[in-house]
Amino acid sequence: MIDDETIAFYDTAAGDYAAKFAKSRPDAQLIAFMNLLPNGGRVLDLGCGPATASAHMRTAGFECDPADASDGMIKIANDLHDLGARKLTFDELDMIADYDGVWANFSLLHAKRGDLPRHLDAIATALRDQGVFSVAMKTGTDATRDRLGRMYTFVTIPELSELLTNAGFSILAVDEGMGPGLAGDVSPWVTIRARKD
Questions:
Q1: How many CA atoms lie within 13 A of 102 on its CB side?
Q2: For the whole prediction, is pTM greater than 0.90?
């Protein structure tokens, strides 16, 4: 189930979010993900936000399907990039072998911990054989609401790795870092790239 307070925040703050995280070029994590995809591959940008990553992937020749649960984010994504971003919640992910890659960059951290296994199963089902999945989340052990009202589920690297393995993925790379979020807090994060077995 989506968290209404989190979605309401993104509906109203989409412009601020897009401005803060605007990037003129793909970052190292996105480049590493694209390097694992087949030429012209089809990618689901799950929780696309303002769809900056999809815009970079389109420029690189990939077919992108940006989707988000926030109407505000979808509007600004389409206003900025005209990518056909559409509304989709994690619970509505029901595609079968439709994508060569799924990019979930700091989106699944808004899902409840107990829902992560089924969301990862759905992502695996949506991927074609040998499809690539990149997931970024903040690391930690709790679940809490930040000062902006967004609900976060923090994961440890072993926990996320086990969830991915249980969903039928082989882990390809684990990258860690620290970075500021929209609330201004500097937090540790992990990006894991994995391939569907």
A1: 35
A2: yes
